[in-house]
Amino acid sequence: MKIIIASDIHGSLTAAKALLAAAEREGAEQIALLGDIYYHGPRNPLPDRYDPKGVAALLNGRNDLIVVKGNCDSEVDGMISSFRFAEDAYLFVGKKIFLTHGHVYNIDNLPAGCDAVFYGHVHYGFICEKDGIVVANPGSVSLPKNNSEKSYLLLDGTMLYLKNLEGKILEKRGL
Fold first, then answer.
1. What are phi and psi of 62, to 5 degrees?
2. So what CATH class is 2-174?
3. Which of 2, 9, 11 is nearest to 31 (CA)?
4. How far apart are CA 50 and CA 39, in angstroms?
5. pLDDT in tens, 95-104
6. Which secondary structure element, helix H or strand E, spans residue 68, and what is its range?
7. Whole-number Å distance between alpha carbons of 148 and 141
8. For residue 2, what are the β-bridge partners?
C-alpha cells in the first residue's frame, strides 16, 4: 500500500493541487495530512494562491484522507471540512506509526509504544532514527524553511521516501 504523508499546506491552493497530483502520480491509496491545512499563521508569509476555501473544496469528499490537527488549525476549520481533524492518529502497516503535527510530539519528545513517528510543523523534511524509532518529517508543500524544497513523504510498503513535489527522491530509508 502506498501512502502519501504531507504537512503544512497553509491554505495554498497551488500546493494542495500539486500534492494531489503527486498522490495520483505515485498511485497513493491514502493521504495523511499532518496539520496546518488552511491558515498560514502569523509568522508565515501568505503562501502562493492563498485560498483556504479552495483547499477545502479540493479535499472535501475524499475518502482517502487521514488528517491530524496542527497548531494553526482551529475549530472553525472543521466547519468547512467534510473530514474530521484528529488530535493524533496511527497507521498500522506491519509497524505502528504515530502521526502528529509536531508542536507537542516530535524528535525531542517522542511518544512511547510506536515504531515510527511522522510529524510536520518545522517545514523541512528529513528521515532519521532516534532511540530505535524511525522519525520522519515530510517538510512543507507550501512554505519550506531552512533552504529545503517543497516536499512530502511516500510510504511504500516498508520503504519510506522523502520526495520533492516533482517526485525526485531526496532521502530514503526502510522502516
1. -75, 140
2. alpha beta
3. 2
4. 9
5. 999 999 999 9
6. strand 65-68
7. 11
8. 156
What's the full length of the chain, in residues?
175
- Give the gyration radius of the chain's Cα atoms: 14
In contact, 61 and 31? CB cutoff 8 Å: no
Diameter over CA atoms, the chain: 41
Residue 75 grid cell: 475549530
Q: Percent helix, strand, coil in the chain (nearest 5)?
A: 15, 35, 50
pLDDT band at 110 (very low <50, low <70, confident <90, very high): very high
pLDDT over 90 at 48, yes or no:
no
Backbone angles phi, psi at 2, to 5 degrees: -100, 130
Closest CA relative to residue 6, chosen from 99, 112, 82: 99
**d(C-alpha 91, C-alpha 89), whole Å:** 7
Cell numbers standing for residue 150: 517543497
Cell of residue 168, nine digits: 525526485
Quote the CA–CA distance of 140 and 150 in Å, as a whole number: 6
Q: Rounded distance, CA 139 to CA 88, Å?
A: 18
State the angle between helix axes of 13-26 and 52-59 in degrees (0 to 180), rounded to the nearest 10: 20
Query: What is the model's pTM?
Result: 0.96
**Sign of the torsion formed by the C-alpha atoms of 85, 88, 92 and 93:** positive
Look at residues 120, 152, 119 and name the one whose alpha carbon lies nearest to residue 133. 119
